[in-house]
Amino acid sequence: MVNIPEYYAGKNVLISGATGFMGKVLLEKLLRSCPEVRSVYVLVRSKAGQSPKARISEIVNSKLFEKLQQDQPDFAEKIIAVNSDLTQPELNLSKADQSILAENIDIVFHCAATVRFSEPLKDAVQLNVLATQMMLALAHRMKHLEVFIHISTAYANCNRELIEEVVYSPSVDYRKLIDTLDWMDDDLVSTLTPKLIGEHPNTYTFTKSLAEYMVQQEAGDLNVGIVRPSIVGASWKEPFPGWIDNFNGPSGIFIAAGKGILRTMRASNNAVADLVPVDVVINTTLAAGWYSGSQVLNRPKSIPVYNCTTGGINPFRWGEVEYCINMSFKTNPLEQAFRRPNVNLRSNPFTNQYWTTVSHTLPALLYDGYLTLMGRKPRMMKTITRLHKAMMVLEYFTSHSWVWNTDNMAMLLAQMSPEDKKIFNFDVRQLHWAEYMENYCMGTKKYVLNEELSGLPAARKHLNKLRNIRYTFNTILVVFIWRIFIARSQMARNIWYFVVSLCFKFLSYFRASSTMR
Fold first, then answer.
1. Distance between CA 214 and CA 219 in Å, rounded?
2. 362-367 — which CB contacts under 8 Å span 24+ positions?
3. Domain presence at residue 135
């Protein structure tokens, strides 16, 4: 087989979801590591008055594409923005654009999806199932299509403890569900959602499971592959360590912890935090496209599925995540932190609820009261409420562990040449978690919050100030409580006078020693 860059040379590639986190990294990596690719078509909808072309222009002028800009100044000429909307019939593609795509596209990467766990079922089905169905229908019309890669999630079948690299049959027929949702009103759908999704924790994992099965059923003679990433985090190496541009998934938790807002969360210390760097996912995706595309004449009978996970190969547990977050943000603090970073994991829901009230709700109420007295708008309680909702959604994933089979991932790596393994590295055995987490936390500071590293000395000074305030407050509180106790107990008063006299004697001895010297 030819190597990966040679395979993509001269090809026309279509990417859906190119404005999303993974889509942007895929676009950058494809153009940078496969410079001979002919063109990359991207499906983009107009948003907030911006045309698809303007949105892509904004993306390619961002920090993510700086390295590519230096290596290939004219790379943007290969990107062709196509007006499209996943919520509309036929993806809202014009007849002319449908014809152009049908005549020219060689490879499809379908990355578009909603990743909101709390998405209403109708919307989740529209974006994750129907949009994928329409992408497949479009792919069937492509005259030169070699491979169709569908990006799913490792949690599509999280109702199972052992997840093999196969497509599982869902508990609900996706065709009947689509027909049923078409006539149901939103209130009825909301009422029936818990029964419909069954053992799935949310509509996201449920609809991604349906989408996988739908791809299997409707692929026909298409050459299809499925990539299942777990919890996608900041970049490991490419285009530079720690790149992240959103608050989704773990990033929002890390920032809340760094700001001192998040102090306790429901998680099991020993549960595996199956984080996977975004560049690992993208390298796997491009390698999967190359392998499937190169096997046109010798295709496997079943759709190849790649569980792009780390837990079974290089496990990293939530207890270790807690330690790394606390240490990273104490060393390199975020600006204007509310409190010093100190996250604690609680596996017991009742204990977690108690500490949530003590460490989140009460301080937020006190802080908002202070802001009100100062004539400023209270905001902390609203932030805490949003954070609690986000944490409730994530609890299922932070308190459970799964076993994923990764034989296809190992096979794919074995098929690659030594040079391809360097350029498209997804061997997570080489991943050093402590270093990765430090880069991840720094990435949230630099790329999400846009904080300059020159502000670190001031941020550290602010953190020390918060520490001193905390120690002072705790000391006053202890003395206050102790004084109340003394007023009610003769024994407590005797102990108190003994300790005070001992302190005075020690100070007197210290002064006398200093005078003699």
1. 8
2. 363/339, 367/338
3. yes
Identify whether residues 405 and 494 lie together within a single domain: no
DSSP 110: E
Do 226 and 181 fall within a single domain? yes
For the segment 475-486, the average pLDDT, to the nearest whole number, is 76
Let me know whether 410 and 506 are in one domain: no
Q: Are residues 408 and 470 in the same domain?
A: no
Alpha-helical regions (H) of 310-423: 318-331, 349-356, 362-373, 380-398, 407-415, 418-423
Tell me if the pTM is above 0.90. Answer: no
Task: Give the domain CATH number at 169.
Answer: 3.40.50.720
Is 462 found in the same domain as 406?
Answer: no
Please report which confidence band the pLDDT of residue 517 belongs to, taking 50, 70 and 90 as the band edges.
low
Q: Using N-to-C axis directions, what is the helix angle for 456-488 and 490-516, rounded to 10°?
A: 130
Q: Of 205, 202, 159, nearest to 400 (Cα)?
A: 159
Residues 132 and 192 placed together within one structural domain of the fold? yes
* 375 backbone φψ class: left, alpha, beta (φ>0; ψ -120 to 50): left
Query: Comparing C-alpha atoms, which of 509, 319, 350, 512 is closest to residue 433?
Result: 319
Cis peptide before 239 (omega within 30 of 0): yes
Per-residue pLDDT tens over the stretch 9-42: 999 999 998 888 899 999 999 999 999 999 999 9
At 172 the three-state DSSP class reads: coil
- Other beta carbons within 10 angstroms of residue 307's beta carbon come to 26
Cβ atoms of 20 and 128 within 8 Å: the answer is no
Q: pLDDT category, 491, cuts 50, 70, 90? A: confident
Both tokens of 45, joined, read 């909808």
Which residues lie closer than 8 Å to 422 by C-beta, 6 or more apart?
none
Instruction: Find the helix or strand (DSSP H, E) in which 282 lies.
Output: helix 278-294
Residue pLDDT, tens place only, 74-84 = 999 999 999 99
Dihedrals phi, psi of 275, to nearest 5 degrees: -80, 145
Tell me the per-residue pLDDT of 342-386, one tens digit each, with 9 for 90 and over.
777 665 555 555 455 555 566 666 666 766 777 777 666 666 666
Residue 258 lies in a domain: no
393, part of any domain: no
SS3 149: strand
| Domain interval for residue 198 | 2-240+271-313+401-425
- Count of structural domains, the chain: 2
Structural domain includes residue 137: yes
Do 229 and 143 reside in the same domain of the chain?
yes
Query: What number of other Cβ atoms are within 10 A of residue 334's Cβ?
Result: 24
> Looking at 410, 425, 440, which one is the last position of a domain?
425
Q: Are residues 418 and 459 in the same domain?
A: no
Lowest mean pLDDT among 134-148, 218-232, 387-401: 387-401
Residue pair 40/431 in contact (Cβ under 8 Å)? The answer is no
308 has which bridge partners? 229
